[in-house]
Task: inverse folding
């Protein structure tokens, strides 16, 4: 079959894989090829054991794979064939040199740009999908235009707003699709091509076109605003614990104001995930590099509050367990950075586990999807950690349960049975406020919710 256009995506990760699967499913007349340097990942995409856990994804992949969706490691051939190239490689925070811990590490992006130049023999549209600092498109354009073949590449920014765990739904029914381009004739034409792809299933009024820098910056700002809401409510949870107010009641009361809205107001042990912290750090770095110290400090505080919240959770555990956890078994319920994903990047679970191990607690970690990642995250740390798929095994002989991730599975446990198997006095620290605290208290637990009065049997 002859396809209308060849689309390539470089980088088969959390963003590239699902996005391309949905494009292929929705546009059978486009050929979609996804390439990656990681052969193991590609092999997984070609199997029924996909490399990432996302509800509904396997169905979408199966619909298109073999028809107009392929996964391969042949990057050069992929580039040669492509009319449009989405770049979706990782852009982690730099761990070295200038801007370490703040700026994005652009080495993968840059390498990709050189590869595109090396293997292209005609003009192509390059679509930035990876979250990138503002004005990266400009830098990339320079690399791409500096080719001796006289080829012109138009760079378009199409930041991804999907959230993990709901990736397929977010892609099928996005609040908006954002496409930024140069405001030249060629730039607008390139943007129109990309609009044409999404317009197959996204209503026109949800496709926003902007200039390049606005698109790049909007992505950082959207994530910064979402993270800011979480830090705001988390800061209030600390105050609630001191005053006897209930943070859930406050979230409800405040979120009922339609100007504020109810979402992203759940107090937690802190936000994780690959985007929020990285994007805010990026924003902070950019603001600082333009001499805007007040702007940088303002956003930096969102991260500071998130670190404070994670630490507060650990300090509560230690304080309430009589100021020592040495030799005590603590079961961590969950390790993923949120429910419905196996991803543990920046998960507060990592911080909590590390701190408790430093305090010489014994850990048992249970998570329906994230145990392999948890093992990798904690590899090399001194101390004893049991990874237990079965939460009852994790709780057996433990003195405390600490809820890290809001998996529904944890709400459905038989807590009478759990209590019976634990050492006494038994504690629950609910870092997500998902359990029935009164009932747990009645069973005999000493219960420490987040931002609510504790329920204890101590005199
Ligand atoms: C986020 C953005 O939502 C998405 O638009 C962007 O493309 C990528 O970053 P993601 O990181 O997948 O998506 O997860 P999200 O659902 O936003 O949750 C981020 C973190 O915030 C999680 O750790 C979650 O548990 C936490 N969170 C979320 C809270 O602590 N409280 C809330 O009320 C909501
Ligand atoms: P994201 O969450 O942004 O999708 P991931 O880390 O999940 O990030 O995925 C990025 C993918 O990009 C990884 O699978 C990585 O192997 C791949 N990658 C990085 N550099 C290159 C490159 N030069 N060519 C092809 N793939 C690359």
Result:
């Amino acid at each position: 079959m002859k396809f209308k256009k060849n689309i390539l995506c470089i980088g088969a990760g959390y963003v590239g894989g699902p996005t391309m699967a949905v494009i292929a499913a929705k546009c059978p007349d486009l050929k979609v090829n996804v390439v990656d340097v990681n052969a193991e990942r590609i092999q997984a995409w070609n199997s029924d054991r996909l490399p990432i856990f996302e509800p509904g994804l396997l169905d979408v992949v199966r619909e298109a794979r073999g028809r107009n969706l392929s996964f391969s490691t042949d990057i050069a051939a992929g580039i040669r064939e492509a009319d449009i190239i989405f770049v979706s490689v990782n852009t982690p925070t730099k761990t070295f040199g200038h801007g370490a811990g703040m700026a994005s590490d652009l080495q993968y992006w840059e390498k990709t740009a050189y590869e595109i130049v090396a293997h292209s023999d005609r003009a192509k549209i390059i679509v930035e999908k990876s979250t990138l600092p503002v004005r990266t498109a400009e830098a990339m354009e320079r690399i791409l235009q500096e080719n001796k073949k006289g080829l012109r590449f138009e760079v378009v920014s199409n930041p991804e707003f999907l959230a993990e765990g709901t990736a397929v739904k977010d892609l099928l029914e996005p609040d908006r699709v954002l496409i930024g381009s140069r405001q030249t004739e060629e730039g607008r034409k390139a943007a129109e091509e990309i609009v044409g792809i999404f317009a197959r299933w996204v209503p026109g009024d949800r496709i926003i076109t902007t200039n390049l820098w606005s698109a790049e910056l909007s992505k950082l700002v959207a994530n910064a605003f979402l993270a800011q809401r979480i830090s705001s409510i988390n800061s209030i949870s600390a105050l609630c614990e001191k005053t006897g107010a209930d943070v859930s009641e406050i979230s409800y009361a405040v979120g009922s104001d339609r100007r504020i809205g109810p979402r992203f107001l759940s107090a937690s042990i802190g936000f994780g995930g690959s985007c929020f912290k990285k994007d805010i750090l990026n924003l902070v770095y950019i603001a600082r590099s333009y001499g805007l110290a007040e702007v940088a400090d303002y956003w930096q505080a969102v991260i500071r509050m998130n670190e404070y919240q994670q630490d507060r959770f650990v300090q509560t555990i230690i304080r309430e367990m009589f100021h020592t956890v040495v030799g005590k078994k603590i079961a961590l319920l969950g390790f993923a950075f949120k429910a419905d994903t196996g991803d543990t990047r920046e998960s507060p679970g990592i911080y909590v586990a590390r701190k408790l191990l430093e305090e010489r607690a014994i850990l048992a970690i249970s998570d329906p999807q994230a145990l392999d990642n948890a093992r990798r995250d904690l590899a090399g740390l001194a101390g004893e950690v049991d990874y237990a798929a079965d939460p009852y095994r994790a709780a057996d002989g433990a003195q405390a349960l600490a809820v890290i991730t809001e998996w529904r599975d944890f709400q459905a446990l038989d807590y009478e049975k759990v209590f019976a198997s634990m050492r006494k006095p038994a504690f629950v620290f609910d870092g997500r406020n998902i359990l029935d605290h009164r009932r747990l208290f009645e069973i005999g637990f000493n219960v420490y919710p987040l931002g609510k009065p504790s329920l204890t049997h101590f005199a």
